[in-house]
Amino acid sequence: MTISGSEPSVSPLSANNAQFEVVLVTDDSVDYRYAAMCPALPGCVSDGRTRDEALRMIKEAVELYLEDLGSHQDLPEQPLSTDTLVGEYAAAGFSVETIKIQARR
Q: How buried is 71 (Cβ within 10 angstroms: 0-12 exposed, 13-18 middle, 19+ buried)?
């Protein structure tokens, strides 16, 4: 399990790009083994049969979320910290890691 420090979940890279922290949960008991969530964007979740597929799908979900939000609007308040989300899944016995992805904004 990888848990990041107290870094912010979103950090601007340029006018058109931002970096987002994603929580990736592995569950070997189901077909879609990987669930991916972006805590900085409430409700922005995806899944995949492989790790790569889940990461590809969450990046697309983040970009679609941002597109829908509009380029001039502020990001919504983050209801749950990344560390809290990671802790809850880890306590339930899941393999959890955090990954930073770059998305076009």
A: exposed
Report pTM. 0.76
Q: Are strands 45-48 and 34-37 parallel, antiparallel or unpaired?
A: antiparallel
Identity at 94, one-letter amino acid code: F
pLDDT in tens, the chain (105 residues): 333 433 444 444 444 678 999 999 999 888 889 999 999 888 899 999 999 999 999 999 999 998 888 755 666 666 678 999 999 999 999 999 999 999 876
Determine the residue type at 24: L
Nearest to 19 by CA among 1, 4, 34, 33: 4
Q: Which of 82, 83, 99, 81 is nearest to 34 (CA)?
A: 99
Report all structural domains of the chain as residue ranges with CATH numbers, in order of start.
10-104 (3.30.160.250)
Please give the helix or strand (H or E) that residue 68 lies within, else none: helix 51-69
